[in-house]
Specification:
The longest helix is centred in the middle third of the chain and has 21 residues, at 231-251. A four-stranded antiparallel sheet has the order 6-7-3-8, sandwiched between helices. It has a three-stranded antiparallel sheet with strand order 9-10-11. It has a two-stranded antiparallel sheet with strand order 1-2. It has helices at residues 12-23, 36-54, 61-72, 80-95, 125-137, 139-145, 159-172, 188-191, 194-204, 208-219, 231-251, 281-299, 333-346, 354-368, 373-378, 381-397, 410-413; strands spanning 105-110, 117-122, 179-184, 253-256, 259-262, 266-270, 273-278, 308-311, 317-319, 322-324, 329-331. Helix content is 52%, strand content 12%. Helix 2 (36-54) packs across helix 3 (61-72), helix 2 crosses helix 4 (80-95) and helix 9 runs antiparallel to helix 10. It is of the alpha+beta class and 414 residues long.
Amino acid sequence: MKRYLSNFELTEEFVRKSVFDCLGGSPTRKSRWKEKKTIFFLAEYLMKWEYQHNFREVSNIKTIGYRLYNYAINNKERLYPLVNYIAHEMYLEIKNRSIRLRKINYNTIIDKGSKKTRVIGSASMKQQCYDYVVVNALKEMFDAKIGHYQCASLPNKGQLFGKQAIESWIRTNPKKCTWFFKGDVKQFYPSVNHRIAKRLLNRDIKNKDILYLAYTLIDTYGDVGLCIGSYFCQYMANYIMSYPYHYVTEMLYVNRRGKRYNLVHHALFYMDDVILIGSNKKHVKKAAIELEKYLNKFFDLKLKLDYQLFPIDSRPIDMMGYKIYSDYTTVRKRIFKPANRVFNQVKGKDTMTLEEAHKVVSYYGYFKYTDSYKYRKKVKMSRSLRVAKEVISNEAKNSRVPNSTGTISVSTAI
């Protein structure tokens, strides 16, 4: 059994790069330098530095935050020395086993698309930086463990990747894709057992610093479950589900005349949603039953009772926002309805509100990759998209800087 990170040494430079990655230092990451949470995170550490080095205590963090914002609004490089100091402090906390994190704020929301109630966590910026440290350190292991057709919350593996994979399977080799199973794990995120998650990490990782950091982050999520909205948790969720994924694709088979035949020809996991495709109804059903036993025995997880098992020719595969037929693809009904209202509202307009513009850009992606040419032409979607992009671009250029007075010299303080 291969264990990862045996030769990995956590350094202050590695922590620094991860912090910059979290704040948007990487071209692939959305910049967070102007966000309120980031500014006050930086201000808090600036106050700490002032107290440690100049023995001066500053009590009004809000004033310092706005001053810091104005100081670096046009040149974030001036804050880099402060980020270096933060990385140094975080590195020492890991090495000294002294990490202290604020309690995560949880908010209950209703998903507009699925109408499901979800509890979303909002962690402190410091914890988000630690998320990037542990994920960057575990990247090699995650890449090796997570299956190719696990496609949720991973770079270049979103809804479009999953849709195109299913289309390719059922259209290029229909004889092996006649039966379809769809199910999902019941309350997956809230039900993840911390003891099991830590045991898996301990099994695969040989590095005390990273294990300590990972365990510490897991403990912040309460007695059980993972945090929806956490960068670390999206990888942990896929990592945990990689075990049942490989079990289904590699361990479930029958022997006939000395040859091995897999029970299912294709499997796709969209986080906790499971798709199994095969040519034999009994084999697909058996694979689903064995998968449920495996989840129950090793992960304390269960499949929902409302799973589906049907021949693909009888109805479309309704998955990831799309309805996939054997010869064409459309948008799911509960997405099409609100999208249709938006496109009809802005049809032919030369201007629109910022909210309408964001909705147009968001919904356009669904129609771009489906067989919806006539509909796109009917609602003049290309024209609406062009106007929406112009509205969003103008809004970004005209965004104002909060008014505040006073200056603060970071370069002198650090």
